[in-house]
Amino acid sequence: MEIIDNPRDMQSLAASWQAQGIRTVLVPTMGYFHQGHLSLMEYGREVGSRLIVSLFVNPLQFGPNEDYQRYPRDLIRDAGMAEEVGVDILYTPRAKHLYPPGYQTYVTVDSLSQGLCGAFRPGHFRGVATVVLKLFNQTRPQVAIFGEKDYQQLVIIKRLVADLDLPITIIGRPIVRELDGLAMSSRNAYLSPPERSSALCLYRSLLAARELVAAGERSRQAILDTVQQIIAATPYTRLDYAELVDPETLEKVQVLRGAARLMLAVWVGSTRLIDNTLLKET
Ligand code: AMP
User: Fold this and answer.
1) Does position 282 have pLDDT exceeding 90, yes or no?
2) 237-245 and 259-268 beta bridge pairing
C-alpha cells in the first residue's frame, strides 16, 4: 500500500490508471477506522482492480462549535488496518492543499441538504458535497462506496452525481453494528461507559419501530411517538430529530406505504449520534 498526500500526485496516478482503463474504486472516509469502514473497503476490493481510500477530516463540513479539533485521528493504526484489507492507495490530503488561500468554490445539493441533519448542522452537506466532488476529481473512480449509516449523505451524493453527469457509480452499503446493535462510528470513542449504555436507545428505538410496523402500524405519528418515548426515557440523551422519510426524496411520510426510512439523530452527553433503518410493509 502506498500513502499519497499530495493532490497532484494522486491526480496524475489516477489519470494514468484511467488512461489504461483500470477500474478504480474510491472509499471516502474521515479515518479512525472501525469495521464499518473496513466493510466498505472489503466490498471495494471485490468490485474494482484498484482501491483508493481517502482519509481526510474535512474542516468544511464541521460547524464552528462542532468537534473538528477533537475528532479522533490515528494515521498509523488506520494505515495498518487499510493495508490488511488490501487497499492500494491511502490518500491523505491536507486541508491547506484542498482549500488553499483564495479558495471560493462550493457545491450545494439544494433541498435534500435542508432537512434532517442539514437543519441542525447548517453548511454540513455543502462541505460534504464540495469535498466529495474534489476527491472524485482527484481520484477519478468508476465506483465510489458510501455507508447507509450516513443515509442523507448517501442520497445527496447520488443526486450530485446524477445532476452533474459524473461517470461514477455510487454504491450504498449496510450499516455495520456492534454486537449489541450500536451502529459503529468513530464518534463512539467519545462515549463514557454510562453514555455507551444510553447510546443503545437509538438501536432499541429502531427495533421498536420495526416491531410496530410488523404488527401493522402505518402511522408516522404512532411510530415517531414510540421512538421519542424511548429516547426521552434514556438518561444523558436529547433528541435532535426522529423522522420518517421517503428513501429517495427524503420527504416526510405521513403514512407508511411500501417503504420508508426512519432517521434519528440523538445527543448522548456531548456526542451526537445518528442511525437509521428501512421500514417496510410486509
Ligand atoms: P466517516 O469516516 O465517518 O466519514 O465514514 C466514512 C464512510 O464510512 C461513510 O460512507 C460512512 O457512511 C461509512 N460508515 C461509517 N460508519 C459506518 C457503519 N457503522 N457501517 C457502514 N458504513 C459506515
Assistant:
1) no
2) antiparallel
